[in-house]
Design goal:
This protein is α/β, with parallel strands linked by helices. It has helices spanning 17-26, 58-68, 86-95, 122-134, 163-184; strands spanning 3-9, 33-37, 72-77, 108-114, 138-139, 145-147. The two termini are 14 Å apart. Bound molecules: ligand FNR. Ligand FNR is lined by residues 11, 13, 16-18, 78-82, 114-117, 119, 121. Residues 4-151 form the NADPH-dependent FMN reductase-like domain.
């Protein structure tokens, strides 16, 4: 059966560069992969009181069900104040609890960081990786994916036309697919 890749984007902005890059990357997976965006915009801010089943917001159950169905997670994130945007960190937290029910564990993951600036959201990329270590996500190490000056890479319609950029994106997806296949053995 097809492998399921859940895409998590660390920006809710309508015209988000991260969302546009996520769409481009999703289009580079081979046949046999279902790549779908997981909506994290409706998740209430995590509160440990919600670990009590009777108090958990309705949005949590659906999100956790969706996470449990995935084979792998692709994280595309901008950087806010040199770290991971709260909306994405919140999603990590919601998916990691109640204690003993970490839904990220043992799944494959890949991190792509995006910025219109020169520093390519390195800080967000590595803060995210720090959490993924603890969450026991089997994260792709190489190639690392730091996307600087992202606004210069995207055409008006959200496409990427520079062949060198497309080749780089394809190399990320190919390495991620190889990791997923290796973990499935
Ligand atoms: C930013 N931005 C930003 N950029 C960066 O490279 N490093 C940073 O630390 C920050 N910090 C930051 C904080 C906050 C609160 C905002 C709103 C923005 C700029 C950011 O990269 C830019 O807004 C991107 O366009 C956000 O990504 P999306 O929404 O286009 O995906």
């Amino acid at each position: 059966s097809n492998k399921k890749i859940g895409v998590l984007v660390g920006s809710l902005r309508t015209e988000s560069f991260s969302k546009k890059i996520a769409k481009v990357l999703a289009g580079l997976f081979p046949a046999g992969y279902d790549v779908e965006l997981i909506d994290i915009s409706k998740l209430e801010i995590y509160n440990q009181d919600f670990d009590d089943e009777n108090r958990a917001p309705a949005s949590y159950a659906e999100f956790r069900q969706t996470l449990s169905e995935q084979d792998a997670f692709l994280f595309i994130t901008p950087e806010y104040n040199r770290s991971v945007p709260a909306v994405l960190k919140n999603a990590l937290d919601v998916g990691s609890r109640p204690y003993g029910h970490n839904l990220w564990a043992k799944k494959a993951g890949a991190v792509v960081s995006v910025s219109p600036g020169n520093l390519s959201a390195f800080g967000a990329n590595h803060h995210l990786r720090q959490s993924l270590v603890f969450l026991d996500v089997q994260t792709l190490q190489q190639p690392e994916a730091y996307i600087a000056n992202v606004h210069t890479l995207l055409a008006e319609d959200g496409s990427v036309t520079n062949q060198g950029t497309i080749d780089f994106f394809q190399s990320i997806v190919d390495a991620f697919v190889a990791l997923i296949e290796q973990l499935a053995k």
